[in-house]
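The instructor's notes for this session suggest beginning with a concrete chain rather than abstract definitions. Hand out the sequence below and ask the class to guess, before any prediction is shown, which regions might be ordered.
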Amino acid sequence: GVIIGSYIGGCLFFYFYKDMFDLKTPKTLWDILTGLSGVFSSVGLVWIAFLTYRNQKLNAFQTEFDNLLKEHEKSLNSNFYNLDGKLNFHSNYLLNKITNSEANLTNVAKIYIYGREEVSRYFILLYRILDRIDIAAPNEDKKRYTGLLRVCIPYEILLLVSINSLNPEFSRYKYLLEKFSILEHLPLSAKFISDIRVKTTNYLFDNI
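After discussion, reveal the predicted structure:
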């Protein structure tokens, strides 16, 4: 869009005002003013083309982001929650494993996250959204988009996100999590861990 607009603007300018550049021809004040108006018209055309291109790009990303956010909500609910809105059995079991003080978190992630396609599918989608924001969103809007994403992720799932990023092959994934401060507000306090431990233990005990 910008390139085409610039090309058209330049062609129109040189076609209608090429006589301005003929140094052998005397120029009147009217000729100079007419030439300047042509310059401004050409610049205006290029600017309009740029704004049109920028708005189209922003609208395209907004549509993509909205669709990804809907897909994220669907994946979150189907993979970690029951129909009643409570964490499902596997989510509680995984959180129970993570909050065990003797747990090897790398092994837990390998067995219960990487080893389960339906769970790892969610984290792949999360990475995809962060990657698209980093690549396609305007710099001044990246923080707003990641903020909208972050508020859609419950604390318990953020804890799983942090464990999922332990894989040494996920360097860009960890980079994006840090760059956009996705885990910044994760309340990793002793009380938070103990509360999850008690809740998940009670849930698992009641569902044996």
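Then share the key points. The chain has nine helices and no strands. The longest helix spans residues 29-80.
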